[in-house]
Amino acid sequence: MFASAPAFARLQCAPYAREVSGIDIHGNAHTWWQQAEGIYQKGSAPKEQAVMVFRSTPAMRYGHVAVVSKIVDARHVLLDHANWSRPGMIEHQSLAEDVSSAGDWSEVRVWNDPSHSLGLRANPVFGFIYKAQPQSPSVPVLAPAPKLLIVSATPQPVTAPGEVLLVSSAG
């Protein structure tokens, strides 16, 4: 799945999320939300295979991105992500809980593997980037107008001035 890398290189969340989700955005995780504008659909509701985009904080300078692998209920999802609990570690089916007061997924707590519990910190979230391309506005496509050829109902013989047209009925 991933190209081999030197032993000192650690897998980061952004390349992992890009590979798993198919959402082709590059750069630090906290920049994904703005980069997705006009390219991918975005929203505040989790959907399977959507990328959850975390804001940067003092604890997460570059933000974080994770792929929603399953919707559990209105306030819980499972995430696949890298570099969360330990540097370079890939985690599958990690629980994330919406802890926002409005229930809008603007703050989440995420499973921390070393403590075997949800993390203590509420992490701010921009929202979710969906794989589907944005809807383009509905603009009717007009077909070119047909070219009209006007033909007289009664054909008129064409003659040069001074010429006489002879019509023979013998055939």
Description:
Strands 2-3-4-5-6-8 form a six-stranded antiparallel beta barrel. It starts with 12 loop residues before the first helix and ends in a 41-residue tail after the last strand. β4 and β5 form a beta hairpin. Helices cover 8% and strands 29% of the residues. The protein contains two helices and eight strands. The chain is elongated and about 110 Å long. The protein has a domain of 118 residues: Alpha-Beta Complex (endopeptidase fold (from Nostoc punctiforme)), CATH 3.90.1720. The chain has 171 residues and is mainly β. About 3% of the residues have low confidence.
Question: Can I get a quick summary?
Answer:
By secondary structure, this protein is mainly beta. It is built from two helices and eight strands; from the N terminus they run ααββββββββ. It is elongated and about 110 Å long.
Largest sheet descriptor: 6 strands, antiparallel, barrel
CATH class of one domain: Alpha Beta
> What is the strand tally?
8
Secondary-structure element series: HHEEEEEEEE
Shape: elongated
Rounded mean pLDDT is: 84
Into which percent range does the helicity of residues fall? under 10%
CATH architecture of one domain: Alpha-Beta Complex
- Arrangement of strands in the largest sheet: 2-3-4-5-6-8
The CATH superfamily of one domain appears as endopeptidase domain like (from Nostoc punctiforme)
Q: Any idea of the CATH topology of one domain?
A: endopeptidase fold (from Nostoc punctiforme)
Strand residue percentage: 25-35%
Distance between the amino and carboxyl termini:
83 Å
